[in-house]
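User: Just a sanity check before I run the rest of the batch. Below are the structure tokens for the first item. I only need the designed sequence back.
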């Protein structure tokens, strides 16, 4: 009977007491974790698939020499699918024309990831067969051939099978491209075009599970001229994927923190309201063990209800969150598995241990005398072990994200900012109190500053909440702005290479006649950096593999009288008197400084140049960029070809074909297909981050509403006291509006400063982007703070002032 009474009372307390906000807070944590982890898992899966599609495999080994047969046998013993590729340049001969082409010789199972689209006379194909030759569109004009015609590649005659529409592999190097063709790998030996001394590259593609791919990498250690590539290191997508994952995990943690704060505030309010009830029960003879059972049953029912509600709402929320992504998510969607169903309740439990445990332990320890003297509750017996509960979620967070620098920067900033903003807020209000004369405002400031610790906590919590909202949205905006520079809307998408000086004016004139947006023309010479301040790099770093990549290969040099418009000089001045301007990245890696003397080798000719300036270069803007730009007087007499880039719309392909016919020695690199794929990835990333940021902002707003609701409820007793002492309803109303208006304005202004400081740290050390100010929040954030607080106060104030009408 006694057990039944305990269950009934616990059930009644859950439904008719003040535990509903606790259930709502726990359900919010579970729902947010479920929805974000499920959606983040799918988004990461999509981003990973995109990255691997751009590689045509899960893992690629790039090599400048073929692998030994024994190595290939070792790969075959591992449960992965492999496809080999050989790349080389050669001459192709038709009946009427000849053309230097870049050939990809692939196997029939290429690609292992992504899609290969080949258009023949009858239908589309997705693989290359022996005896076939597939050409990119320009080669039909350059070789003067059609479908079914014969083209000689070395000693082999191949049939033109059709046109290459698209292929998965992308390249960002515009300086080593020729019109592309594809043939089957088995035909290479018969063609006899790959011989000792030929410039050939080899690629080995692998597809399989993560463990098997790790086994492949373990089975072979790359040597000089070889490199493993995956979706995080291939081309320019690695940074984007890493930063996306960092933002996703950061957003999940911030949502949990804000929901946990909501839970803590709600539970603390519940404990304060139930201390007298428990004291009365204890005074009537209830033992501490009975109180534990009573609270334990409440917690059990509370967790079960929160889990059911949270998982149900989380599943619905995940569905709603991916509606904006319907156009970019694949169909069918990858399953999110069982992890979100387990992770949501687990995180809620970890958060609830200290958030619920510590206040409830204090409630259990409340003495029976609290029913007579509320102050004696403060002298309740303290249980030092209760604070160990706080270590549980902290240790779990460390185990989960110990290597997430972005997350720890934000958490450190939160701890510092909460204390700093609380202290600054109290100081500002005390200074204001001495200067304000209007009675309502003076009473409001007196009310706020009467208890500095409580006021500081409230101001710090409000300012930190607004700061978190700003950080989430500003970081999303800065990331998207940076990624948009990967491929601006008006970025060049065609490069014209190997333009002879005698053809340059005519070629540029043809582009201008067609009203094409183009870059300036740049002379190109190829050479190596071989020495620093009189010492050879071969002597400074004898092991070639340990040298920087820029020291192991030929680089593209140019010369100019003026700074390119899309570069920025960071140090020094533009080169003169035989000087050179150096890109900041390579200068940092090689330790180059202004005044250093560099030795270069071009066409077996060596010369020196003094470093006159260090330049900032944005490599992702698809414009011609260079590590080294020389003073023209130093190198302009060296033989060079010219480069120009321009933008071409999809409907202007006929211009490209005509240029190919009229200037057959000029190599045209068409990047329009690659540009479209990058835009798709950018669209996926931007929509994903916007949706997640929106949910995080909603969680932050809930925290703000909870904080304001609790502080307003605490004012009810004071309102009755003011009324008893003769204060008019109008005076009370004005004082409350003034109090919360001042708190909102001060916290909003402090949040601006805190957000700018936090963003500076995040941009510099978290996501490694240029630090910048955000003037758009300087006015909008305080305005938003005042507006939100006023809306909340207006919503709740009527209930608080209701007793004054009687």
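Assistant: Here's the designed sequence for the first item:
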């Amino acid at each position: 009977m006694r057990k039944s009474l305990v269950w009934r009372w616990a059930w009644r307390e859950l439904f008719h007491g003040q535990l509903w906000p606790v259930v709502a807070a726990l359900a919010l944590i579970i729902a947010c974790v479920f929805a974000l982890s499920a959606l983040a898992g799918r988004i990461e899966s999509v981003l990973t698939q995109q990255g691997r599609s751009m590689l045509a495999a899960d893992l690629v080994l790039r090599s400048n020499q073929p692998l030994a047969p024994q190595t290939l046998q070792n790969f075959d013993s591992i449960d992965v699918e492999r496809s080999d590729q050989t790349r080389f340049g050669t001459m192709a001969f038709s009946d009427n024309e000849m053309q230097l082409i870049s050939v990809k010789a692939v196997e029939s199972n290429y690609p292992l990831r992504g899609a290969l689209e080949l258009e023949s006379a009858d239908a589309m194909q997705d693989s290359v067969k022996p005896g076939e030759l597939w050409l990119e569109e320009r080669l039909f004009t350059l070789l003067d051939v059609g479908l079914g015609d014969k083209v000689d590649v070395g000693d082999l005659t191949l049939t033109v099978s059709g046109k290459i529409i698209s292929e998965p592999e992308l390249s960002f190097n515009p300086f080593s491209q020729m019109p592309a063709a594809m043939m089957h790998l088995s035909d290479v030996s018969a063609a006899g075009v790959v011989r000792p001394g030929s410039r050939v590259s080899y690629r080995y593609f692998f597809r399989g599970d993560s463990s098997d791919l790790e086994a492949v990498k373990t089975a072979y250690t790359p040597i000089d001229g070889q490199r493993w590539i995956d979706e995080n290191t291939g081309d320019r997508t690695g940074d984007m994927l890493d930063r996306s994952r960092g933002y996703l995990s950061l957003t999940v943690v911030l949502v949990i923190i804000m929901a946990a704060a909501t839970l803590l505030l709600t539970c603390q309010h519940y404990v304060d309201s139930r201390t007298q009830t428990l004291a009365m029960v204890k005074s009537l003879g209830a033992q501490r063990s009975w109180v534990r059972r009573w609270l334990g049953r409440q917690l059990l029912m509370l967790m079960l209800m929160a889990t059911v509600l949270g998982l149900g709402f989380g599943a619905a929320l995940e569905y709603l969150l991916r509606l904006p992504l319907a156009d970019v998510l694949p169909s069918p969607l990858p399953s999110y598995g069982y992890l979100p169903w387990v992770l949501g309740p687990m995180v809620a439990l970890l958060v609830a241990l200290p958030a619920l445990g510590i206040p409830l332990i204090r409630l259990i320890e409340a003495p029976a005398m609290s029913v007579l003297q509320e102050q004696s509750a403060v002298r309740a017996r303290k249980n030092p072990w209760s604070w160990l509960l706080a270590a549980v979620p902290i240790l779990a967070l460390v185990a989960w994200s110990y290597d997430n620098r972005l997350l720890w920067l934000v958490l450190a900033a939160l701890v510092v900012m909460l204390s700093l903003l609380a202290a600054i807020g109290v100081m500002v209000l005390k200074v204001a109190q001495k200067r304000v004369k209007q009675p309502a405002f003076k009473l409001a400031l007196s009310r706020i500053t009467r208890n500095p610790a409580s006021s500081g906590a409230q101001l710090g919590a409000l300012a930190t909440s607004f700061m978190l909202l700003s950080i989430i949205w500003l970081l999303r905006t800065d990331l998207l702005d940076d990624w948009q520079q990967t491929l601006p809307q008006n970025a060049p998408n065609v490069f014209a290479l190997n333009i002879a000086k005698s053809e340059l004016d005519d070629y540029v004139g043809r582009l201008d006649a067609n009203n094409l947006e183009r870059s300036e023309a740049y002379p190109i010479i190829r050479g190596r950096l071989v020495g620093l301040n009189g010492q050879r790099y071969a002597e400074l770093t004898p092991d070639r593999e340990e040298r920087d990549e820029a020291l192991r290969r030929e680089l593209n040099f140019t010369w100019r009288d003026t700074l390119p418009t899309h570069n920025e000089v960071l140090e020094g001045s533009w080169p003169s008197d035989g000087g050179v301007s150096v890109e900041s990245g390579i200068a940092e890696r090689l330790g180059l400084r202004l005044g250093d003397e560099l030795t270069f080798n071009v066409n077996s000719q060596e010369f020196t140049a003094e470093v006159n300036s260090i330049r900032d270069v944005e490599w992702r803007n698809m414009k011609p960029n260079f590590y080294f730009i020389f003073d023209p007087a130093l190198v302009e007499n060296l033989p060079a070809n010219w480069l120009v880039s321009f933008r071409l719309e999809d409907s202007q392909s006929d211009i490209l074909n005509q240029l190919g016919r009229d200037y057959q020695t000029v190599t045209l690199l068409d990047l329009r297909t690659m540009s479209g794929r990058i835009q798709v990835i950018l669209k996926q990333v931007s929509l994903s981050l916007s949706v997640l940021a929106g949910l995080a902002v909603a969680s932050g707003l809930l925290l703000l509403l909870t904080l304001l609701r609790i502080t307003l409820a605490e004012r009810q007793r004071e309102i009755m006291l003011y009324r008893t002492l003769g204060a008019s309803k109008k005076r009370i109303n004005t004082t409350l509006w003034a109090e919360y208006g001042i708190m909102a304005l001060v916290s909003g202004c402090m949040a601006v400063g805190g957000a700018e400081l936090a963003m500076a740290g995040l941009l510099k050390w978290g996501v490694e982007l240029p630090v910048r100010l955000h003037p758009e929040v300087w006015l909008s954030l305080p305005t938003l703070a005042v507006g939100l607080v006023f809306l909340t106060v207006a919503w709740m104030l009527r209930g608080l002032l209701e007793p004054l009408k009687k």
